[in-house]
Amino acid sequence: MANTLNSDLEGITVAETRLSQINGEKGELLIRGLPIDELASNASYEETVFLLLNGRLPTSEETDEFRGKLASHRQICDEVQAVLQRAAREGKPAMDALRMGVAAANLGVEEQDLRKDIHRVIAVFPTIVATYWRYQQGKEPVAPRDDLGHATNFLYMLTGERPSEARAAGLETYLNTVVEHGLNASTFTARVVVSTESDLISAATAAVGALKGPLHGGAPGPVLEMLQEVYETGDAEKYVRETLDAGERLMGFGHRVYRARDPRAAVLESAAESFHTEKGDGEFFEAAQEFEDVATDLLAEYVPDRRLETNVEFYTAILLDGVGIPKDLFTATFAISRVSGWMAHALEQLDDNRLIRPSSHYVGETKRSWTPVEDR
Ligand code: ACO
Predict the structure, then answer these.
(1) pLDDT tens, residue by residue, 239-254
(2) Edge to edge, what strands does the sheet with 34-35 contain?
(3) Whose CA is nearest to atom 37 of ligand 1?
(4) Is the interface score ipTM higher than 0.90?
(5) 190: domain CATH number?
(6) Ligand 1 centroid, distance to 309 Cα (angstroms)
């Protein structure tokens, strides 16, 4: 069979999906056929996940039932808590702690059918992240409440206080916005794992590892630092030029698929605006908007043959900061949402599974012979 080398798999289609459709040229994203802006600002996270898993919006009874099902799987066992405590004590980053916690999330749980653990996998993510964070802050963990929705309960577990509706709604918009996005690196990772007929916890653990990197989910923390620095100096152009002159990448800009502004940026921009206005630091938000304009123009000057615009991570940083999520938890909060996309893809993969097994092109030496150790 003729073989072409595609080391980054760009433009290679390896799966059919009904979950999301991305138009990279126009900058459009549909989740199960619904435009992302419509879904993100109207749905609860539970409704979004139900839609992803079932292909239609739930009735109100179904939403309640689904919310209850997720809420009933939120607990983590003492041993997982101990791992998170140790990770916090050793100063491990949140994504490392999440990876360790997820990997152990079936401890104490009777072995389940491969497909039934899906609710547990989605439900434990916020508990793991919040438990780690409480230990990190030198505080006792806050047990999850089963009478709160997914987003509200996460904020509650972080602080021990029920969040305002505005904060919960801001987080919900964020969780809805980033829940699913085609065959990004972490989703592909999850599909590869389940294609071996491994299990969902293994898929989620591997996907957390893939999401951690700065080229994927690790960008929003550095974005916030960048914006804070520029807000203090007031000189966006200097910052951007220095970064690009040093051959570095500007965090929060560029995307493998989009050749337009990432449509999720607009959703998060308007959600972030309300927070920063409400918090009384609308000036910071406006400075970020100005930064976006300056950076987009300068990127066009420095990289003329590639359209580089804001990706999802730029306004993620500003929205999550407004909602009160600590910077060190930005990527883990991304994972709290995206795990549902991973799980939906895992089910799709299993519906019509064939082992994902690409090939490599050998470029090493040939025709060598064995050298005894005394002759080497
Ligand atoms: N800043 C400066 N230059 C950039 C940027 C950027 N943010 N992004 C791409 N470029 C330049 C590259 O330098 C490259 O030029 P070169 O080949 O001469 O070095 C050219 O544009 C093409 O870039 P590629 O590396 O081919 O683009 P790719 O599709 O691999 O990258 C990526 C996409 C990884 C997101 C990239 O744009 C980037 O590194 N952005 C910054 C990190 C970031 O924001 N990550 C979050 C991504 S969103 C998400 O995953 C949820």
Answers:
(1) 999 999 999 999 999 9
(2) 20-23, 28-31, 34-35
(3) 254
(4) yes
(5) 1.10.580.10
(6) 10
